[in-house]
Write a structure and sequence with these properties.
- The chain is α/β, with parallel strands linked by helices.
- Helix content is 25%, strand content 22%.
- It has a single domain, classed as Rossmann fold, CATH 3.40.50.880.
- The strands form two sheets. The protein has a nine-stranded mixed β-sheet, sandwiched between helices. A two-stranded antiparallel sheet has the order 5-8.
């Protein structure tokens, strides 16, 4: 049924979690990517609690500093950057509300790690915990090749088994959380996790917002917005993801 004359279609609203201060450029690029998909963003910060959660159709957990190691059973000193425990608590609450309400969720870098923790997974406090001789470079530009599992939802989104990605992280996923599965890796580092039987739940270790000029990364935001528009994936529209 078409839209009645004189009415305006409601734009999809994507909530983006941020610290109380900072992440200006990350939010700017995320906002641009969501704009490209015909939707708009709403910033969600710890100081605002969860007052805006009822206004959003999808949730993005943006990147940032290391997560409090005590949240996943590690030593309290096992971190490489200042902690923001207020943000950790706030974002875990946002995941909880979104998950229980079947709202599409995308975690970026730190956000992917926090999704893993919410589902009782753990992290390597530093990349060197994986292998002390590992060569780990940081750049917002694509510097590594990520291998995507063929039968994953991420593969259905990107339509490829390999993507180039950037890298801006100190920590990495160790034990994968309950009901989650690994959908991409780079060498021994988990690069993406996802969940089946959910409208859209994906965590990527890289920053797709800075790679908007590559269609595979734009596709992540496109499918997030698509899922928000269409609600729960049904057998009828599931084919779009294949």
């Amino acid at each position: 049924m078409g839209i009645k004359s004189g009415t305006v279609a409601k734009k999809i609203v994507v909530g983006v979690t941020l610290p109380d201060n900072g992440n200006f450029f990350a939010y700017l690029f995320i906002r641009f990517n969501i704009y490209l998909q015909g939707a708009k963003t709403l910033s969600l910060r710890p100081s605002k609690k969860s007052e805006n959660i009822d206004k959003i159709d999808a949730l993005i957990l943006s990147g940032g500093d290391d997560i409090d190691p005590t949240l996943y059973g590690a030593n309290k000193d096992a971190h490489n950057s200042p902690l923001d425990k207020k943000r950790d608590k706030f974002e875990l609450e946002m995941i909880d509300i979104a998950y229980k309400n079947k709202i599409p969720i995308l975690g970026i870098c730190r956000g992917a790690q926090l999704i893993n923790i919410y589902f009782k997974g753990t992290l390597h406090a530093t990349i060197l915990d994986i292998d002390e001789f590992i060569i780990h470079k940081n750049s917002i530009f694509p510097i590594k090749q990520v291998e995507i599992k063929k039968f994953s939802n991420l593969f259905k989104i990107t339509k490829t088994k390999k993507v180039v990605a950037n890298s801006i992280h100190n920590q990495a996923i160790k034990k994968v959380g309950e009901n989650l599965k690994i959908s991409a890796c780079h060498e021994r580092i988990v690069e993406a996790i996802e969940m089946d039987d959910y409208p859209f739940l994906l965590g990527v270790q890289w920053h797709p917002e800075y790679l908007f000029y590559l269609k595979e990364h734009r596709g992540i935001f496109r499918h997030l917005v698509f899922s928000a528009k269409n609600g729960k994936r049904t057998p009828k529209n599931r084919a779009i993801f294949q």
